[in-house]
Specification:
With 422 residues, the chain is an alpha/beta fold. The protein contains 14 helices and 24 strands.
Amino acid sequence: MDKLRIIGGRPLNGEVTISGAKNAALPELCATLLTAEPVTLTNVPRLRDVATMRLLLDNMGVQSETHGERGGMSFQAPDSLKPEAPYELVKTMRASVLVLGPLLARFGRARVSLPGGCAIGSRPVDQHIKGMQAMGAEILVEHGYMVAQLPAGKTRLHGARIATDMITVTGTENFLMAAALAEGETLLENAAQEPEITDLAEMLIAMGAKIEGHGTSRIHIQGVDRLRGCTHQVVADRIEAGTFLCAVAATGGDVILRHARAEHLDAVIDKLHDAGAEIEAGDDFIRVRASGRLKAQSFRTTEYPGFPTDMQAQFMALNCIATGSSKVTETIFENRFMHVNELVRLGAKIQTDGKVAVVEGTDKLSGAIVMATDLRASASLVIAGLVAEGETIVDRIYHLDRGYDQMEAKLRGIGADIERIK
């Protein structure tokens, strides 16, 4: 099992290129199921989850190939494909539920295993099921699978008003894809507003979908009879960009992030500004400069455009070596403080009580062996290791590989002493 070996204490300087967003690429791979025509995606990140999703599509009968230098992939989903997502291929990835909507919309049936993924709390699929039922699907959950089909005599889903009980990103994405081929108009209320959803909507529009309001909490979709192929570039990964911003803020240095979108990171950048980091942004870059210990910042995670839960662990690592104390409140996932015990092993001073963690900044961390428990926890341990005195070993980095494209190579390119141990 691969590990990362980090020698801390080196500032980061230079340039790093931000890859395409995992959370946009995964639903966009699923959207290729909506047409029999070829679809080309560019800027697809090289990630374990992307490879798993591609393997799942291949297993259904989708023809795919890789081409070009900047993450190019082409897909063609024939009418004869098998609309099933087996447990063996989806047990490590919660995003696999995103095939449900496209399969129902185009083929009228689907058999999809209940998904797995990071152990950061329950993300129930009941909202997905209720939304698809509102659009006319019949769905049973049996033997660990969602078995869905259209009623006898029906050939298409129908439009509906869907108001989810809570804001759900994957639910909004599933409904967007299903509604694109449904009969009539669908209105999504309480829709998620993340940039990755906007990017998916732009891809669907390029395929011929009629969508308005994406990027807001009310999305209108007028179903069409068929969708066509397209070429679409995956939006830059705001969480990867935010992770590198926190790494530079923690270690000190001067780094330019290429292909980063500052407007997607307002809440994080505001906190970094308040902490004392210098941030400069343009159309296609973010520059971050920092020196010395920054000021600790309290924050509360919430849905976009608030502070993202996917940046909570990384900013906590920064707070660990900042001056002063901070309070971190996690409102999205109930088990998302699993990195705390590992940060404490490195010398961090953190106390947790339910959804709240209180961090007392310390002037130094010391290297140790730590274990990653989920994707973003892995990133927080890497940041802490970059700051800590001596050697840090981060174990179980297969979590990291699920969501970061060659992270150690990018960090090494800007001055970090980091290597992968096989």
